[in-house]
Design goal:
It is found in: Membrane. By secondary structure, the chain is an all-alpha fold. The protein is about 75% helix and about 0% strand. It starts with a helix and ends with a helix.
């Protein structure tokens, strides 16, 4: 055996390397972190679904005598979430994707810890679940990105790894992959949205994290498609007016959402300057009340993620004509209220509503129109067309519509760029970067 080692020096070096704790410990910690993202994402999904179900049981889906309860529960829930976020979990507000983007730009580990930490993992999950329990129009997918990035960054600290930026990217991709059961979309999201300055050497980290998180999710939930399996096939030759309409109109509404969200959050932030907590709670209460009124007016359709409505549209059930406008407003108000929660699932529901309405106008299939509407609107909101069509393809299990969805996504993106030049998540990430800079300057001042 000794002679064999002398004959093959590379084998000797390989054994010595893997016998070193410095080599295998970081890898084990990284693998454990990726698996934990998958497990926690599944737990988060189960809690979120149960919270929504409890809310609908509480208010009575039959529109009976408890229809008024959202007027009490929803504003109080918004206020509770805003207070807990401000007092105990600062940095948990909003989607969570801007925090992960900001953390990749920050160089100091202490600055990153203010927006990515195990404390925020607990707070983000708990407050998003509370928000869904009180009827907020939010999703869990954006928060799962912050959760994944936080877990992977913590794994980097425990494992003594120095690739913090790459690991944040890997954790974010794993979060999206596990949240939707869409591994390809997780990778594309990492490249297009999270890593506008993507580094080739992070390829292995991203792929490994997505695979391990995906395996953990599959082990717990099995293989599934988020919106079931779509049987619709879009014939571009016959349905090109629908493709163009969903891309342009969906992208226009998506850009409008992004523009209004940015303007509103900036004005609210300036208004908060003198009395931050008191005014934050007032904004949350007013937004919660407005969300409750919209939810009651829509017959309860706009409460929660919108997953049920979007899936129904994909499967061929038309949505009410004004559902998309009501869900648009409910999602916008939930976002600017300052409570933790994402916009992925609500955006897909709005897009499905736009597509369903256009399908009825143009005499097209509801299922096909919903898919195209989701692609156009989502690409318009986040200005990430590749992520939009890949995630919709994987969520519906139908790859016959690649070209039509690509075109709708690109039209949505192009329309959005003409209306709003700032990608939503990246514009919001600058808020957290600016806060880190201000905190550093304040600490540097003499006491």
């Amino acid at each position: 055996m000794a002679g064999r080692s002398r004959k093959y020096p590379m084998l000797r070096r390989s054994r010595a390397m893997w016998g070193s704790r410095r080599v295998w410990q970081p890898r084990l910690v990284f693998w454990a972190g990726a698996v934990s993202i998958g497990v926690i994402s599944v737990l988060f999904a189960v809690l979120a679904d149960k919270a929504q179900a409890l809310f609908h049981v509480m208010i009575g889906d039959d529109g009976g005598r408890r229809f008024y309860l959202p007027l009490i529960v929803t504003p109080l829930g918004f206020v509770l979430c805003a207070w807990l976020a401000h007092a105990f979990f600062p940095g948990s507000q909003g989607s969570g994707i801007p925090q992960a983007i900001a953390a990749r730009h920050l160089r100091d580990d202490d600055d990153r810890s203010h927006i990515l930490s195990l404390r925020l993992v607990m707070g983000k999950i708990a407050l998003t679940v509370i928000g869904l329990f009180c009827g907020a129009s939010i999703g869990r997918e954006g928060p799962t990105v912050q959760v994944g990035a936080s877990l992977m960054l913590q794994a980097a600290r425990w494992g003594g790894m120095v690739q913090a930026r790459g690991l944040i990217l890997a954790g974010s991709a794993a979060g999206i992959a596990a949240a939707f059961n869409t591994p390809l979309a997780g990778i594309v999201f990492a490249i297009e949205e999270m890593g506008r300055t993507y580094e080739a050497r992070t390829n292995g980290l991203v792929l490994t994290a997505v695979i391990l998180a995906g395996l953990a999710s599959l082990g717990l939930l099995g293989n599934y498609t988020y919106f079931g399996v779509s049987k619709e096939t879009i014939s571009f030759a016959a349905e090109w007016p629908l493709v163009i309409a969903c891309g342009v109109i969906g992208g226009g509404f998506g850009a409008l959402f992004s523009l209004l969200a940015l303007k509103a959050t900036r004005r609210i932030r300036r208004w908060h300057t003198h009395q931050p907590l008191r005014r934050a709670l007032l904004v949350a209460a007013l937004c919660g009340l407005a969300v409750a009124v919209i939810g009651i007016a829509s017959g309860g359709l706009t409460f929660g993620t919108g997953y049920v409505q979007a899936r129904g549209a994909v499967e061929g059930t038309p949505l009410p004509g004004f559902f998309f406008a009501e869900k648009f407003l409910a999602g916008l108000l939930s976002m600017v209220s300052g409570i933790p929660g994402g916009i992925f699932a609500p955006s897909l529901a709005v897009g499905a509503g736009i597509g369903s309405s256009l399908g009825l106008i143009l005499g097209a299939s509801t299922g096909a129109a919903a898919l195209l509407g989701m692609a156009g609107y989502f690409a318009g909101v986040v200005q990430a067309p590749m992520t939009a069509f890949v995630i919709i393809l994987e969520m519906t299990g139908n790859h016959d519509n690649v070209i039509a969805l690509m075109l709708a996504s690109m039209l949505g993106y192009g329309t959005a760029r003409m209306i709003s030049h700032e990608p939503l998540y990246h514009a919001l990430s600058r808020v957290f970067i600016a806060e880190a800079i201000r905190r550093r300057r304040a600490e540097a001042l003499p006491t």
